[in-house]
């Protein structure tokens, strides 16, 4: 957690170079005419490189280098599925052409960044930054800066931004760790964004929106519980839910804060990683009251639903990070436990959920697993892989 | 309704010609390297032709001819988004390459067909047929026949198949109009499919699955109410829900049976076209009990949720088929009424819902409407357009 929020800030300031020449690619051949619905990107974090992959035949198509510090990289996609927007820790924002496997554009837009999203209409790319604290909107084609929205909460004081998510109406919702706030910025007029502020509770450290884009939920580092904002009627304000969610009075050691992005909504229930506990919490999405706790092998990091909601897959913090468990959401119990490799950092389901890709950083591989039989379909070599992102995200809300 | 179920059967029998030469295209240029996530197909029913369109800039890219009788055409997509599978009324199944805008393969697989779907893993295309009654599975690449599953319900008697939907585990669920049955066929071994049968109630005329693929719901022509099958635990059998759904004792005139495919799930509620009444019914998706009725302008045909669930759009049967209404699902009332043209047959939302495309058959045009402002974004000419289908369907369950 500390490493995530308080990584050394490289005080590079803002260096925008929208017309930087594309670096050479390291591999690849003449661009092939092909669909883009089955493409994806695997982050090779140490090498500053991404693999371009496809999940129809589970293969690697090529690599693209020169993307900078990818230690907390996030990827979003253009609405046509051709381009990946790769957000690097060092503030780099790179538009990668998945068909030619070249860098189309690259800018360094901040000193420390943790991700970004694409607007509902696909025309804006918005980055969330720690340094300088705030969000910035760019033209999705050219990466030209359209709007800078500093997260200023007191004169000259700027908060780190976490949990950015795109929602309908060209809006983006996010939380301010240092300012205990949730904000909604509306980019309907991209050059004149309008921001609304809400009190969030103490130190929101991450956030997510439900798959329909209706609810924004922020996890709190400074107190127990979560903050819920109904984006369909934000005027009703933020309310506290699941007061038992958090470290509580026992002050459990927390090896890694869970990623809220991974929360699963399935069967009218939300499946949440408990903080510090070896449990997955289940909450009713109508009342937001806790409905069950499921014991698991370690401290959960990602808790992700298979797209049909029948299974929830869980990975864990150190020292249990070689393990993955599968929960059957109907039976509400673990039905499968296995180790795809060492230091399992991320999982990504194929769009309709027949397979899942898992990255094992310390085993230098990607494992592709059949979600019905749990059989290993394929292993692919990768250099310390972390995030895996498929283009179908570009067709969905809140990614 | 009668026209839909009892159209003249062309007793062609099975004519498979998987290697038919591709007809010439009528327009188009050299294939362009591009993403496929924003592509779509518009059916020009009278001309046996489709338009290939894109929704990033709302334009027509070209046309493909020679697809036969498209009077009740349905379209499914390959998992990579490159190919459209067009199911014609005359049993034609055509694989259209959206990038080259040519026919890649074409077979005539039945005498009378009303649609089909693609398996979860993308490797099978399954057609639902009236004549000969049953379903057939084809290799998605080659269109080679892999399995023929006749809907035989008594010696030598074959039912028309309706409501086919793909669900997880290579399964397809569908209903038999003439046999009062729901069936699930599992193609895990494509050449040795396994079929399970359930009693469905009288004359199921259409069906759908919920977006998570869990529930199959069949509308009944022969009695009031709907039949619900929980595909996560099919052994619990079919149960009757919404006994008030149907024509009831008044025997209202029904100008066109609603399409169940259009049902909307939003905010934990299902939004259903009432049969014969000028109403949209709202049912709670936990109890499946009716929770509200919303008066609308005519007999609803398609009732479709914007992808975020905040709006439900409704078109109508004759004589109100020039109108479209928009329901706000939070306020549960009509908030907008307009006429995009004459004989509005279909609607398709962009994947994240910022726009909707509407086909007006008798005005020979497609209207693209902004769903936030209701402003007309663009009109495109089309020859008696009916169905509109975007490639994002290929990434979703139950399409």
UniProtKB/TrEMBL annotation, chains A, B:
It holds the Pfam family Cytochrom_D1. Gene3D superfamilies: C-terminal (heme d1) domain of cytochrome cd1-nitrite reductase. PROSITE patterns: PROKAR_LIPOPROTEIN. It comes from the Bacteria. InterPro entries: Cyt_cd1_C_sf, Haem_d1_sf, Host-pathogen_enzymatic-act. Keywords: Signal. Residues 1-20 form the signal peptide. This is Protein nirF. The lineage of its organism: Bacteria, Pseudomonadati, Pseudomonadota, Betaproteobacteria, Rhodocyclales.
């Amino acid at each position: 957690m500390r490493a995530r929020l308080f990584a050394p800030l490289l005080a590079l300031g803002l260096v925008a170079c929208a017309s930087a020449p594309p670096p050479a690619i390291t591999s690849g051949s003449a661009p092939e005419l092909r669909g883009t619905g089955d493409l994806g990107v695997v982050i090779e974090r140490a090498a500053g490189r991404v693999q371009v992959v496809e999940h129809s035949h589970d293969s690697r198509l090529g690599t693209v280098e020169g993307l900078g510090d990818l230690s907390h990289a996030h990827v979003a996609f253009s609405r046509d599925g051709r381009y990946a927007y790769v957000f690097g820790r060092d503030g780099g924002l790179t538009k990668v052409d998945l068909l030619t496997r070249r860098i189309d554009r690259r800018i360094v837009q901040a000193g420390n960044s943790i991700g970004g999203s694409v607007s509902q209409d696909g025309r804006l790319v918005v980055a969330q930054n720690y340094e300088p604290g705030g969000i910035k909107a760019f033209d999705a084609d050219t990466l030209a800066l359209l709007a800078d929205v500093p997260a200023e909460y007191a004169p000259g004081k700027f908060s780190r931004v976490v949990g950015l998510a795109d929602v309908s109406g060209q809006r983006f919702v996010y939380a301010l760790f240092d300012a205990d706030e949730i904000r909604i910025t509306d980019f309907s007029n991209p050059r004149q964004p309008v921001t609304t502020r809400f009190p969030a509770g103490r130190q929101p450290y991450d956030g997510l929106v439900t798959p329909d884009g209706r609810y924004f939920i922020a996890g709190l580092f400074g107190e127990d519980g979560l903050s819920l904002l109904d984006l369909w009627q934000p005027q009703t304000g933020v309310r506290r839910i699941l007061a038992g969610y958090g470290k509580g009075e026992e002050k459990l050691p927390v090896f890694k804060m869970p990623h809220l992005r991974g929360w699963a909504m399935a069967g009218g229930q939300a499946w949440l990683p408990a903080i510090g506990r070896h449990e997955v919490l289940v909450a009713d999405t109508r009342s937001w009251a806790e409905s069950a706790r499921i014991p698991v092998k370690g401290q959960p990091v990602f808790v992700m639903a298979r797209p049909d909601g029948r299974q929830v897959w869980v990975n864990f913090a150190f020292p249990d990070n070689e393990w993955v468990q599968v929960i059957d959401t109907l039976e509400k119990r673990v039905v499968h436990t296995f180790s795809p490799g060492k230091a399992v950092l991320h999982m990504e389901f194929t769009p309709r959920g027949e397979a899942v890709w898992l990255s094992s950083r310390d085993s230098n591989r990607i494992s592709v697993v059949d979600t019905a039989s749990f059989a290993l379909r394929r292993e692919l070599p990768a250099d310390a892989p972390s995030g895996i992102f498929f283009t179908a995200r570009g067709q969905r809300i809140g990614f």
